[in-house]
DNA sequence: CTGGGGTCCT
DNA sequence: AGGACCC
């Protein structure tokens, strides 16, 4: 359908300013000549003249603006939003006083002692506001097959090609309202004929235009359906969306309009708060000239630190430039990058796929489609940073807090009534739009927690740079899921990532314990306890290289060296339906040797484990399941059991109801043994936090006796 | 002295 | 599981 449309448009373009109109000439000769040889089907626009209409929208100093909605006294003030020791962002007033985004708090306060600090470590409010903006925009362009992609909390990409062309078609068919040189762009379906905006048929763009001489030279453009006039029309639509975001939500935005994402994003940052910029090149040369103004190739989305560092290194080797791998090394300009890195060079350095992409990016070529952000994310994670967190009890306590925090988020974002509270509610967005553009801002309904007498601000005193500094902190009231709300998605996997000292992150994942979904029968505390237990198991599991689970990593993680600097817990693999039970048997089924294995498929382990103890024991006895809690296991017996290997045994692993994570010294074998349970499958005793994993992959589980000896080397002896 | 998140690719 | 990218 794209081809049909673009044919009619390019025939319209052919009459007036064909050579300068630059549709074909926007492509490099290479790209024009090349026909797709790949077997995978390319996006419709690949290899075709640029035809898409992309808007990049950027919420201005988002965290600051969002905080100002909660606390208007911040308006007009130099404000910095801090996360731990860093300024996530700061207000333009603060920037005028020399404060830089991403500077340390200490540095910012040195430059601007009057800086007002806001705590931005809890993202709840920002996340909600961000989703609101996304839904608003999607409510407008969605009905026209428009696509909206969220990038982080404060950026959107919007593909309005279909929407604009639908309008142009309607206009060609005389279906639009016109009045004294103006046309009405009806933005909602026919049920809402008043929603939309008037624009001037003179074809003047809204906002800034780049390259600077671009529009002036083509001022004789007729407002016909040329590609250029479609881009110009898009600036009106962009303003409309920005006006909506401002009037309905109260946030100002910057925007860029171009024929692809990278260029739209690049120009969106050229004029920054509350302005928009159109990129309107006449030729491919215009694009390259524009990019060559960019002194730092990192300004192009896709050129990150690792890539540029590698490029600079390669440059130093061939051109005797003394650019080491420093952070302080001078930026690599786009023009230098383009001249110094022919395609063959880039593919050598980065492989065919990435190399080709980077080569195109240096010339402004970008095929990346606007990928509609799905209703539910692919993963939900929380994290916190520490200064050398160590000790079993300390770590376990943090794990409990983080687990509870993750559960709170999962409940908030994955539960709802069938329609989905996070869902677009297309009708609602249209209603909002139907209201006048200059209407009052929407009420922001964050249920605020009011600890202070003076209002909704919690003052937190924090010692920063030797002074006590007040950090304003806005908190949301706790709430439980409503009665009617049910899980819309079920994360099947949980992943624990940690950073040890200042090293790199490492991560392990395992099955999500399914009882975290039982919000009716278990308190959040109980479910958090369960999840934290599983996480402690992951912490102790160590890497695959640890084979039998010597517990080296775990010992160090809990007790040794620098301690933990970061803990991140992620819920991923979000399923639509709740699985029946924990997949305990996969390992054994794959093992193949289970012909004689006795089947107990009729027993739902999860259900069994949740029964009251007396009933549970009764049922277990009936099915021959060992629910025995064991005081201690003799070391020698364990060793021999371990040698035989769990996979040869016949029974499924099963543990008794899990006790809380014991607050105890893990280096004491006695403690471990006393709280261990014996695997009914292979007979190995495991500490509580290892049982979950052991049940899935017995060979990775760390037998208590080994754990004891491993930690004993650092701890209080065997 | 370096946040608290996300996505995709290998 | 890790590494790159994005904000």
From TrEMBL:
<dbReference type="GO" id="GO:0019985">
    <property type="term" value="P:translesion synthesis"/>
</dbReference>
<dbReference type="InterPro" id="IPR043128">
    <property type="entry name" value="Rev_trsase/Diguanyl_cyclase"/>
</dbReference>
<dbReference type="GO" id="GO:0006281">
    <property type="term" value="P:DNA repair"/>
</dbReference>
<protein>
    <submittedName>
        <fullName>DNA/RNA polymerase</fullName>
    </submittedName>
</protein>
<dbReference type="GO" id="GO:0003887">
    <property type="term" value="F:DNA-directed DNA polymerase activity"/>
</dbReference>
<feature type="compositionally biased region" description="Low complexity">
    <location>
        <begin position="8"/>
        <end position="18"/>
    </location>
</feature>
<dbReference type="Pfam" id="PF00817">
    <property type="entry name" value="IMS"/>
</dbReference>
<dbReference type="InterPro" id="IPR001126">
    <property type="entry name" value="UmuC"/>
</dbReference>
<feature type="domain" description="UmuC">
    <location>
        <begin position="54"/>
        <end position="304"/>
    </location>
</feature>
<feature type="region of interest" description="Disordered">
    <location>
        <begin position="1"/>
        <end position="46"/>
    </location>
</feature>
<dbReference type="InterPro" id="IPR043502">
    <property type="entry name" value="DNA/RNA_pol_sf"/>
</dbReference>
């Amino acid at each position: 359908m794209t081809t049909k449309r673009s044919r009619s448009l390019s025939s319209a373009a052919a009459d007036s300013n064909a050579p300068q109109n630059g549709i074909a000439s926007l492509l490099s000769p290479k790209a024009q000549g090349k026909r797709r040889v790949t077997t995978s089907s390319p996006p419709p626009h690949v290899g075709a003249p640029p035809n898409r209409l992309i808007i990049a929208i950027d919420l201005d100093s988002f965290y600051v603006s969002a905080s100002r909605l909660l606390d208007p006294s911040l308006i007009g003030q130099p404000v910095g939003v801090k996360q731990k020791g860093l300024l996530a962002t700061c207000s333009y007033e603060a920037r005028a006083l020399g404060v830089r985004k991403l500077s340390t708090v200490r540095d910012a306060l040195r430059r601007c002692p009057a800086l007002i600090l806001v705590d931005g470590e809890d993202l709840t409010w920002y996340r909600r506001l961000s989703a609101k903006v996304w839904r608003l925009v999607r409510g407008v362009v969605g009905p026209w097959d428009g696509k909206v992609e969220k990038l982080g909390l404060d950026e959107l990409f919007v593909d309005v090609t279909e929407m604009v062309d639908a309008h142009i078609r309607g206009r060609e068919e005389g279906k639009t309202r016109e009045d004294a040189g103006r046309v009405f762009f009806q933005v909602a379906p026919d049920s809402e004929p008043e929603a939309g905006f008037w624009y001037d048929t003179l074809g003047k763009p809204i906002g800034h235009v780049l390259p600077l001489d671009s529009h002036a030279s083509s001022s004789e453009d007729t407002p016909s359906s040329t590609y250029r006039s479609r881009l110009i029309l898009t600036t009106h639509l962009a303003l409309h969306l920005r006006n909506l975001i401002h009037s309905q939500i109260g946030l100002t935005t910057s925007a860029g309009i171009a024929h692809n994402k990278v260029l739209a994003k690049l120009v969106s940052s050229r004029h920054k708060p509350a302005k928009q910029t159109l990129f309107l090149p006449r030729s491919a040369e215009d694009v390259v000239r524009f990019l060559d103004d960019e002194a730092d190739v990192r300004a192009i989305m896709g050129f990150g630190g690792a890539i540029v560092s590698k490029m600079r290194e390669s440059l130093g080797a061939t051109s005797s430039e003394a650019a080491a791998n420093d952070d302080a090394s001078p930026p690599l300009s786009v023009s230098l990058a383009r001249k110094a890195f022919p395609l063959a060079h880039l593919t050598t350095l980065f492989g065919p796929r990435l190399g080709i992409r980077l080569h195109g990016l240096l010339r402004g070529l970008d095929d990346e489609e606007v990928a509609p952000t799905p209703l539910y994310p692919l993963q939900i994670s929380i994290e916190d940073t520490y200064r050398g967190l160590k000790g079993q009890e300390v770590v376990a306590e943090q794990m409990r807090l983080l687990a509870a925090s993750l559960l709170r988020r999962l409940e908030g974002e994955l539960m709802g009534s069938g329609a989905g509270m996070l869902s677009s509610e297309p009708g609602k967005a249209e209603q909002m739009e139907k209201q006048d553009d200059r209407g009052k801002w929407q009420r922001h309904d964050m249920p605020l927690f009011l600890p202070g007498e003076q209002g909704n601000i919690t003052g937190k005193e924090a010692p920063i740079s030797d002074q006590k500094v007040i950090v304003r902190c806005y908190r949301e009231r706790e709430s439980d899921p409503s009665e009617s709300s049910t899980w819309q998605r079920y994360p099947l996997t949980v992943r624990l990532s940690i950073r040890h000292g200042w090293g790199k992150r490492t991560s392990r994942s395992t099955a999500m314990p399914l009882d975290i979904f039982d919000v009716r029968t278990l308190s959040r505390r109980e479910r958090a306890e369960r999840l934290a237990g599983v996480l402690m198991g992951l912490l102790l599991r160590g890497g695959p290289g640890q084979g039998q689970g010597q517990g080296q990593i775990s010992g160090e993680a809990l007790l040794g060296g620098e301690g933990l600097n970061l803990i991140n817990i992620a819920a991923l693999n979000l399923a639509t339906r709740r699985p029946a039970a924990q997949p305990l048997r996969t390992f054994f089924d794959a093992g193949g040797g289970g012909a004689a294995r006795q089947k107990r498929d009729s027993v739902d382990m999860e259900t069994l484990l949740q029964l009251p103890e007396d009933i549970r024991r009764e049922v277990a006895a009936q099915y021959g399941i060992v629910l025995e809690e064991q005081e201690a296991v003799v070391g020698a017996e364990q060793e021999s059991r371990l040698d035989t290997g769990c996979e040869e045994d016949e029974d499924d692993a099963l543990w008794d109801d899990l006790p809380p994570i014991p607050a105890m010294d893990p280096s004491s074998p006695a403690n471990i043994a006393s709280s261990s349970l014996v695997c009914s499958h292979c007979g190995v005793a495991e500490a509580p936090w290892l049982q979950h994993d052991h049940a899935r992959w017995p060979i990775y589980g760390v037998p208590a006796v080994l754990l004891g000896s491993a930690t004993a080397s650092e701890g209080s002896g065997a």
